[in-house]
Putative negative regulator of RcsB-dependent stress response (Halodesulfovibrio marinisediminis DSM 17456), 259 residues
Amino acid sequence: MDRSVLLLLVIVSILVSGCMQSEIEDELSRARKAFINKEYTEAERFYQRYLRDNDSGIERWNVWNRLVEVAGTVRGNKNRAIELLDAMLLEYSGEPDRYRQVLVKKGNMLIEGGLWSEAITVWSQLLSAPAVKIEEEATAYANLGKAYLMRGEYGLAVDAFKDCRELEYNNSGHKQLCIYELAQAYAFLGNHVEAEKNLNNLLQYEAVEVTLMARAKLLLADIYEQQEQPQKAIALLQDIRETYPNPRVVEFRLKSLQK
């Protein structure tokens, strides 16, 4: 091929590529501008066009997440947001870090929506996902326990919260919450011995968040009342008069016990 013809083809190729890149950038620019201006329908249209026309575009991850934000947070359409997250799970199944991020986002959305059965499936998937990190395991066990608890499957909730408690995760606040939830699950099972044991364990921790400490003491007071140890229950209730989120509950319980 003549060198001049070859050079011409190269130049044309560069120009076409440049034009296409310019169109892509312009499309994303329009989408971002529409989003900033709260023109969400327009923003969605441009973002969706970008995904359709750019199978391997470097901005796909950000565009997907923006669409999820518009659907779930802006419009409050959780079903649509979950559909988008499902599409993302397919696209990023070969990218472990992003795949797990999508699972976490979907799991949180299902928990917020009270879709306990579906949430259990997703958090279980996270635990078996490739290269799962310890903080992701901690989040998964805590949410599994919550979902089982809400479904009334207290034995499975105990198992999940025990795994959460035993995890070697350097986050004292998270461990404390798992211990409280484990105690609550035992209480629902009627196993007051284990519930009391875990609550007393929690009370030994330093720097427990004030509301969590108050909730733990209220639950322990419940257990003491059922064990016919009213003085222990009264002492705990008096201790949380100023810290429990709903003081009327505490006052009502105290009056009942002091009759």
Notes: The two ends are 104 Å apart (CA to CA). The mean pLDDT is 91.
